[in-house]
């Protein structure tokens, strides 16, 4: 994880360059898609992962949920 906050400049075409340290720490590759998420007063760029990469990411999660009384089956 990149420990220092970095700044970028928005070009006249509204483009930004993701700093090398950030790209490397997140494994972002040329041509990869990112989701753009407005979050309050900031913008988050979230790497889109292929479905195959998601396999097993929920492994070990406890499937038991405490539900509200009106949500019981």
Summary?
With 73 residues, the chain is mainly beta. The protein contains 1 helix and 2 strands, in the order H-E-E.
Give an overview of the whole structure.
By secondary structure, the chain is mainly beta. It has a domain at 25-61. Helices cover 10% and strands 16% of the residues. The protein is built from 1 helix and 2 strands. The protein has one helix at residues 20-26, and strands spanning 34-39, 42-47. A two-stranded antiparallel ribbon has the order 1-2. A hairpin with a 2-residue loop joins strand 1 (34-39) and strand 2 (42-47). The radius of gyration is 18 Å and the shape is elongated. The mean pLDDT is 84.
Descriptive terms for the model:
16% strand; mainly beta; elongated; 73 residues; 10% helix; two-stranded antiparallel sheet
* Secondary-structure class: mainly beta
Order of strands, main sheet, comes to: 1-2
Q: Estimate the helix proportion, in percent.
A: under 10%
Rg on CA atoms, Å: 18 Å
Order of SSEs:
HEE
Spans of 5+ residues with little confidence (pLDDT < 50)? none
Biggest sheet features = 2 strands, antiparallel
Gross morphology: elongated
Q: What portion of residues belong to β-strands?
A: 15-25%
Average pLDDT: 84
CA distance, first residue to last residue: 42 Å
In DSSP terms (H or I, runs of 4 or more residues), the helix count works out at 1
Number of strands: 2
Specify the oligomeric state.
single chain
């Amino acid at each position: 994880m990149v420990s220092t906050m970095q700044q970028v400049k928005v070009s006249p075409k509204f483009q930004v360059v993701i700093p090398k340290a950030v790209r490397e720490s997140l494994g972002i590759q040329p041509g990869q898609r990112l989701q753009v998420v407005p979050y309050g007063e900031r913008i988050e760029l979230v790497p889109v992962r292929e479905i195959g990469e998601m396999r097993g990411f929920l492994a070990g999660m406890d499937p038991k949920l405490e539900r509200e009384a009106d949500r019981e089956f």
